[in-house]
Amino acid sequence: MINPITLSFLCTLVRGAWLCLGVSLLCILTASADNPPNIILIMADDSAVDNYSCYGSSYFSTPRLDQLAATGVKFNQAYSTPVCTSSRVKIMTGRSNVRNYVIFGCLDREEITFADMLKEAGYATVVAGKWQLHGAPNGSLPSDTGFDTFCLWNFPGAIGNRFWDPNLVQDGHLLETSEKDYGPDIVSDFLIDFIKENKDGPFFAYYPMILVHNPFLPTPDSKPVKGQSKKQEALENYRDMVSYADKIVGKIVDSLNELGIRDNTIVIFTADNGTNRSLTYPFHGEQRKGEKGLATERGTHVPLIVNAPSIIPEKIVSDDLIEFSDILPTLAEIAGAKLPDVELDGVSFWPQLQGKKGNQRDWIYQYHFPKYDLAAAPHGHGIYNREIIWAQNHSYKLYDDGSFYAVVDHEELEDIKESKGSRDAERVRKLLQKAIESMPKTSPKLAPEYGPPPLVKN
Fold it and tell me: Residue 419: which of 405, 429, 431, 408 has the closest Cα?
């Protein structure tokens, strides 16, 4: 039997504990409102999901990304578009390419980007790495798209080397470099300097990597190997490049720790499309050929890892469908920013980053206008017979010409004829057909008067 004095004392302790908890939660919420998280978005160039050890590769080694995946959220079903321009336009605007694709190498400067959105919300903004969005007609420069500062390759005045002795423009000035200078080091150091200058936040750092695009050259960490064929040498260099990209990610994370801002910084890692078609690499006992540029599973299935120690729970692995237009609305929800007043196609996956169900997609839609003959041949139509449209879910994929494949049929060898598939397949066929019909037929910004895109046969 507890005496009244002891009972009164225990009740006081409980009330005090609840009061402290309430005050603590209030402080967290207030700090969150007053101190929105910093955001770093890293996007590798030409690297499919199977180029990473956290996604099952035993050939490629990516320990720093593995650690981020293990202590954050790893999405297994994330999709880019087949090539860089369309992916960059989509990820930056939150809009399907069917609404805003102009031509290869161009982001229409009238588009509102995630940097515009976050700058309006009070974020300092930077872009470093690869640009390639300034082409005619009406192409964009960083100042057109919400970035305060930049250090970029494939920029007016900087179209030459990207790796050794690189041609880089920093805030309008061509950098002086030598054969000993490595482009990825210069742009990542620039990014880290920006982070140091803006450590009190909030800041948004967009890092569209120069790595791991061809040419496949040795990195600063590569060891000379003799007696290899050119094909094997390219593959070994590519593997080193993937490892070096992973090392740079680690360098950025280490800088956040040193500055004491790691807990309030969300790090996102993805890639813009599949692996270069000239490469063949091992994966789970088979030899896989890169399918960059192709409207296939291996041309569009990319990694997506999100990590922030005090904001995002650990060890979440999600099979939810995610595609690049989803990035912008997710960033808006993270930052408490106002969405652009345009028609968006993305769905925020911020709830999934909190371990919640969220608004899961039943399908994703893709519109692709390739410059490659090989990509356009199977399903191209419309302008120059090069428009490719499809929708897919976890299991099936439907092109707007009626071709229907199982997603596991990576090479798309067996077209499932109508009424020949299972009951589930036919249900999904109808779902995906409605998805295709819900979107515009063509991009209103596509510029056929500029002539067909340059053709590449291999």
Answer: 429
Q: Tens of pLDDT along 173-187?
A: 999 999 999 999 999
377 and 436 co-located in one domain: yes
> How many Å apart are CA 363 and CA 392, to the nearest integer?
5
Asked if 245 contacts 209 with a C-beta cutoff of 8 angstroms, the reply is yes
**Residue 114 pLDDT grade (very low, low, confident, very high; cuts 50, 70, 90):** very high
Each residue of 404-446: pLDDT tens digit?
999 999 999 999 998 777 999 999 999 999 999 999 999 999 8
Give the residue numbers spanning the domain of 375: 365-450
108 and 232 share one domain: yes
Distance CA 125, CA 132 (A): 18
Give the chain's domain count.
2
Strands (E), 210-326: 265-271, 280-283, 286-289, 301-307, 316-323
Out of 328, 356, 384, pick the residue that ends a domain: 356
Q: Tell me what pLDDT residue 19 has.
A: 37
Which residues, in sequence order, are CB contacts of 153 under 8 Å at separation 6+?
Answer: 129, 130, 131, 162, 166, 167, 168, 183, 187, 210
